[in-house]
Amino acid sequence: MLPTRVLLNTIEGNSRMAHDLLVKLLGSANDECFAEALKLQIEEYAAIAKEADNRLCGGERTVKVKKARKCALSSMDLTLLLDKSTERMAEMIILGSTMGIIDIVRALKEYDGYDEQVLGMAIRLKETEENNIKAMLEFA
Prior knowledge:
mainly alpha; 5 helices
């Protein structure tokens, strides 16, 4: 069972990682509509990360999330060296959002707390991931 702090770390870490990866992809985006879609996603992930961070009061982040973010950024750099097409970037976002959904759903299943605000943040993150997949399917 997960305590509230662990769920908050999951929410903050996943939303921060998504934000950072999308910012990096935005720098390589050539399609204006795609770039606008990325900007909307970036804003949403930033808001979720900030809300979770405020609840954590700047506490220690899990090492797992830091390592995963570093690994994801390195993998994305390599992929972008080979293919910077909008289609490929959309596929990367779809895959990342799918992994994000799996991670947050697992965390929700293990959560044993009753904090409605934290549960709401987790559900908001899951819905954001689902909406991003739908939006990126237009570009894939």
